[in-house]
């Protein structure tokens, strides 16, 4: 088995990675802010992290993953105030939707999903440590700020020179950070809208609420310890969020916060970063409505290296749909086969070696997919020979091929669901109803797309005076 290597944002190098205890990778991943549905750009990051945890297990280690849920922040409070709700009324439906969407995309459960609102005491304790250590100060309004000039290593993750951060300067940072770029908020004094929406807590500095960066440090250290193995997220979180996490955590403990940092690149639509503010957002609900399966989106995401930008287009999704159908057809054939050829053993072992080599070299999912499809082509050739020449039948070789395929799919998870007869009938009727509705509104492109979708499932339809009939092909 090759050595497992990852690109560490902190060192800007691909380097060997292993858990410090040799057994369990303790991993923190930044989760969604639950005030709206997570968009497909968010889920590109979550899928990269799903691949990461599966490859960690492939390497023989266990995983302890903590993914936070940000359920108190400026955007949530604004939405709650505008709708006359408290913050939990805003966040709970979107938390449930996040988990529903995550499961649709076959993203494995993290071991913990802590919520920010349930960890305010830990956050207050962390701020108290920072004040005691002389790296945080209280402003006149009762807010508490981290003084970056008192932390010598500030900027080491983003490779930002803090001398360039002039007082009052505007830098590319999120709306949570103070306008004065030198310092960032640890604790924000309560405003009337905070009190009205249930977003204020008692603290030694008066009523207030935690800063966004503080939340992750407090929850990560509570569940994973003051130093843990791996921190992952989207590339947009490097500065200021992850930079500030490092500063406040290491200034409090005097210890390294995370040993390795991994960041995934943006998802683009028509060449622009997917973001709610520019309106080019697609989400998982829309995928479902368009009949695009979770396996299709998984394949689309894995078709690019996690550190390269990925452009979402209709053509790319159609190519992924065809690829997933091919995987499903092979899975059925392999499951129904009665024997193979001796050469299947060589095919399977070569595929596994190429698969390991790709994923253990900084999660190279495109090369892993190439290994899978080469295996499918080679295995199909051997299965054809086994059918044509029964005398060469080898059941042990067939089982070896099945083992290799199961291993690869345990990581990529791309085999489409095989519906039972009853489930298939329900699904076909639902798609036919959607097709009728599309034709009634004269959306013939949508109707044709549904017909193609049915054909890809080997369902043939016939339109007649009595309606539409269907049968298996």
Automatic annotation (TrEMBL):
Q: Which domain of life is it from?
A: Bacteria
Pfam families listed in its UniProt record: CysS_C, DALR_2, tRNA-synt_1e
Biological-process GO terms, alphabetical: cysteinyl-tRNA aminoacylation
Name this polypeptide is given: Cysteine--tRNA ligase
Q: Which organism is it from?
A: Gemmatimonas aurantiaca
Its lineage opens with: Bacteria, Pseudomonadati, Gemmatimonadota, Gemmatimonadia, Gemmatimonadales
- List the ranges annotated as motif 'HIGH' region: 32-42
Sorted alphabetically, which Gene3D superfamilies does this protein's record hold? Cysteine-tRNA ligase, C-terminal anti-codon recognition domain, HUPs
**Where does it live in the cell?**
Cytoplasm
Question: What SMART domains would the database entry show?
Answer: DALR_2
GO CC annotations? Answer: cytosol
Can you tell me which family this protein belongs to?
A: Belongs to the class-I aminoacyl-tRNA synthetase family.
């Amino acid at each position: 088995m090759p050595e497992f290597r990852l690109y560490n944002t902190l060192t800007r190098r691909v380097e060997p990675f292993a858990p410090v205890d040799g057994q369990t990778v303790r991993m923190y991943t930044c989760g969604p802010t639950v005030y709206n549905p997570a968009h497909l750009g968010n889920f590109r990051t979550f899928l990269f992290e799903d691949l990461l945890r599966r490859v960690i297990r492939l390497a023989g280690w266990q995983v302890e993953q903590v993914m936070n849920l940000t359920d108190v922040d400026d955007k949530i409070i604004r939405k709650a105030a505008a709708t006359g709700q408290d913050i939990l009324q805003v966040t709970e439906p979107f938390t449930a939707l996040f988990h529903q969407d995550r499961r649709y995309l076959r993203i494995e459960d993290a071991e913990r999903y802590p919520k920010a609102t349930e960890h305010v005491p830990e956050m207050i304790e962390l701020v108290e440590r920072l004040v005691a250590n002389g790296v945080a100060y209280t402003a006149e309004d009762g807010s508490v700020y981290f003084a970056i000039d008192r932390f010598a290593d500030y900027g080491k993750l983003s490779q930002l020179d803090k001398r360039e951060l002039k007082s009052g300067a505007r830098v590319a940072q999120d709306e949570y950070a103070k306008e004065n770029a030198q310092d960032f908020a640890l604790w924000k004094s309560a405003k009337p809208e905070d009190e009205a929406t249930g977003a204020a807590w008692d603290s030694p500095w008066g009523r207030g609420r935690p800063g966004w960066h503080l939340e992750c440090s407090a929850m990560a250290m509570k569940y994973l310890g003051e130093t843990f193995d791996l921190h992952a997220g989207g590339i947009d979180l490097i500065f200021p969020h992850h930079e500030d996490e490092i500063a406040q955590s290491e200034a409090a403990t005097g210890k390294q916060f995370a040993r390795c940092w991994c960041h995934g690149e943006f998802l683009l639509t028509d060449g622009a970063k997917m973001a709610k503010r520019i309106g080019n957002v697609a989400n998982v609900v829309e995928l479902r409505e368009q009949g695009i399966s979770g396996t299709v989106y998984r394949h689309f995401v894995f078709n690019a290296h996690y550190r390269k930008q990925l452009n979402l287009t209709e053509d790319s999704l159609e190519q992924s749909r065809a690829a997933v159908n091919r995987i499903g057809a092979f899975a059925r054939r392999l499951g129904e086969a009665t024997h193979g050829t001796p050469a299947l053993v060589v095919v399977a072992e070569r595929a596994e070696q190429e698969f390991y080599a790709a994923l253990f070299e900084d999660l190279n999912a495109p090369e892993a997919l190439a290994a899978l499809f080469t295996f499918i082509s080679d295995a199909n050739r051997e299965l054809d020979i086994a059918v044509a020449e029964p005398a060469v039948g080898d059941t042990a070789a067939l089982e070896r091929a099945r083992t290799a395929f199961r291993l690869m799919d345990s990581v990529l998870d791309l085999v489409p669901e095989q519906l039972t007869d009853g489930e298939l009938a329900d699904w076909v009727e639902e798609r036919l109803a959607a097709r009728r509705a599309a034709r009634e509104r004269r959306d013939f492109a949508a109707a044709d797309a549904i017909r193609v979708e049915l054909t890809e499932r080997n369902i043939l339809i016939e339109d007649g005076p009595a309606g539409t009939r269907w049968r298996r092909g």
